[in-house]
Amino acid sequence: MEKEPDKKYETMKKIIDALEDILCSYQGRGHLSVYTDLDSLALFASLVAYGQIKVENYSYDYDNDIQEDEEAARIYGELAPQTRWRVGQRTQIEAIRMNALKQLAFLGSPVYREQVSYEDAGAVLVCGEILPYEIFQLFLDTTGLRKIYIFPYPFREGWEKPFYFSFEPTGTAQREIRKYAEKNGKKCTR
Q1: Beta partners for 112?
Q2: How far lies 112's CA from each of 43, 79, 118, in Å?
Q3: In a 3-state reduction of DSSP, which class is residue 188?
Q4: Sign of CA dihedral 182, 184, 187, 190
Q5: pTM of structure
Q6: CA distance between the termini of the chain
Q7: In angstroms, rounded to a whole number, what is the distance separating the alpha carbons of residues 79 and 32?
Q8: Strand order in 147-151's β-sheet?
Q9: CA 36/CA 62 separation, integer angstroms
Q10: What is the pLDDT of residue 188?
Q11: ∠ CA(180), CA(130), CA(52), 5° rounding?
Q12: Cα separation of 79 and 87, whole Å?
């Protein structure tokens, strides 16, 4: 019979490995790892493990020809100049971002307010790498934010279709995040 601590360790290890794959899946210059800040990782993983941050995954059909989609190109073209995104480069990351915008079209039109936001839905879109403490800061600093959608790198072995994920904290999670931020000298604006 397996000991209880071993089961808890295995569960937490699976969650942390999944968070690494979801939050820090983009390789290349400046590649991050959730292991950068073990304190925020431990809190984030435990909030996920105990259901205080609800995680949902969604599969989608990646459109290889997204740059030919006039609506996706128009939305990207309007949004990109406000961000650090570039227009017309026809790079892989541009196509990934356009696919992400297309998937979240059901949330309405995005705006840029330090993040790509869907204000009516209380949501933020993240394409690229984000660390647990940065997620905490988003939930603390973004008025009305209820959910973060994260699009990991879509081309991975073993995944038939790409996935994106949403993270939604409960009231308990928000209180724990606030306590963490205050304890670690982070500014809480909400």
Answers
A1: 116
A2: 29, 7, 9
A3: coil
A4: negative
A5: 0.86
A6: 47
A7: 25
A8: 53-59, 163-169, 147-151, 123-127, 116-118, 111-112
A9: 30
A10: 47
A11: 45
A12: 10
Extended strands (E) in the chain: 53-59, 111-112, 116-118, 123-127, 147-151, 163-169
On the CB side of 177, how many CA atoms lie within 13 Å of its CA? 27
Q: What is the mean pLDDT of residues 63-73?
A: 89
Average confidence (pLDDT) over 29-52: 87
CA 97 to chain centre: 13
Q: Answer yes or no: are the C-beta atoms of 27 and 136 closer than 8 Å.
A: no
Kindly tell me the sign of the dihedral angle through the C-alpha atoms of 159, 163, 168, 173: positive
> Look-up: residue for tokens 């949902």?
56
Q: Give yes or no for residue 88 having a pLDDT over 70.
A: no
Residues 6+ apart with CB under 8 A from 9: none
Residue 160 CA to residue 53 CA, distance in Å, equals 26
Give the residue among 36, 43, 45 at the shortest CA–CA distance from 16: 45
The pLDDT of residue 189 is above 50: no
The DSSP output letter for 24 is T
Highest mean pLDDT of the ranges 17-26, 106-115, 164-173:
164-173
Residue among 32, 35, 17 nearest 130 (CA): 32
